[in-house]
Amino acid sequence: MRDDTVEKEGTWEELDDLRRRARDEDWLIDVEASCSFERSLGKGSSGEAFLARWRGARVVVKRIEALKTTLAKRAFARECAIMARVRHPNVLAFYGAALSESRCDVVVEHAAGGTLKAWLHESGRQKRSLSERLDVGMDVARAFAYLESRTPSVMHRDLKPSNVFVAADGRAMVADFGLSRFVAANGEELTGETGTYIYMAPEVIRSEHYDNRADVFSYGVLLHELVTGIEPYQPHNSTAIQIATAVADQGLRPNIPEDTHAGLAAIIEMCWQQNASDRPSFAVILESMETMVPDILKEQEAKAAARRENPSVQAKAFQNLSHTFATWSSKMAELGGGL
């Protein structure tokens, strides 16, 4: 049977195996008996999300109605298998699922801060400080360094702000593993256009072979968005497909403002290199971010202090900043040369 065909009603050949795995791994949940539903959080193309309580904690129940095709059922089973095996503070926690022929309910951690997209861009919300935005950037890098380090490693394949959630304490958590894959240690590569166009790597857009470094490209676009506070490629009059074509064939990238910290600009540019082999690993990205960000924030405070002081103090502060910028540019150039 082809992957996109609709199975006969009442059949799902792999369902018993999926239930058995859920019982063995202790993530099979009787949602109706154990969850107390509070309110709907919204409907999407595949179902509806509800705020609920489970074992005394607030959770989100994603109710997925009528998985009709073989492809959809296999994708759901794969998503559950991946989510059940990943555990990290910066990955949205998966608690379990209820599985039946007619409906599947997935129970996950509740992120009170909503999506990163709303957190960063929604009108009426306060402007996020550079410190907050860089903290989120490091959290996302931590999540992907963890996914990269697993055996087998995990490719997310759809990193974007709407697939990152923010906890009440400001912690960022990567979510939505519906397009994810385990990647074998033998260097298995994937093909096919998968993800969201404006965050998609050139090799994915061209339906060429790709691996985990496609996620690195997406991270570079996301980090640019966090640093600038501007959605990618804005303002523009092009469609997402036109932008993607230009990214793949002409090397189009979002503009990096001149006042962007030299080290941050270097990381962004390294992540979205046209040639995937020139991109760093998430381990390298995370190490660079964790080393660099404290200095960046100190520099920001020095700038603010300099503006409040007399011109002689300001001149000295900017002289120190200039030296630090040069040092970071040199470090990043050395890092890039070692890839």
From TrEMBL:
Native organism is Ostreococcus tauri (Marine green alga)
Q: Which Pfam families match?
A: PK_Tyr_Ser-Thr
The record's section on InterPro entries has: Kinase-like_dom_sf, Prot_kinase_dom, Protein_kinase_ATP_BS, Ser-Thr/Tyr_kinase_cat_dom, Ser/Thr_kinase_AS, Ser/Thr_Kinases-Pseudokinases
UniProt: ATP binding residues = 62
Alphabetically, the GO molecular function entries are: ATP binding; protein serine/threonine kinase activity
Keyword terms, alphabetized: ATP-binding, Kinase, Nucleotide-binding, Serine/threonine-protein kinase, Transferase
Would you identify the family this protein belongs to, as annotated? Belongs to the protein kinase superfamily.
- Locate the Protein kinase domain: which residues? 35-292
Query: The organism sits in which domain of life?
Result: Eukaryota
Q: What is this protein called?
A: Serine/threonine-protein kinase, active site
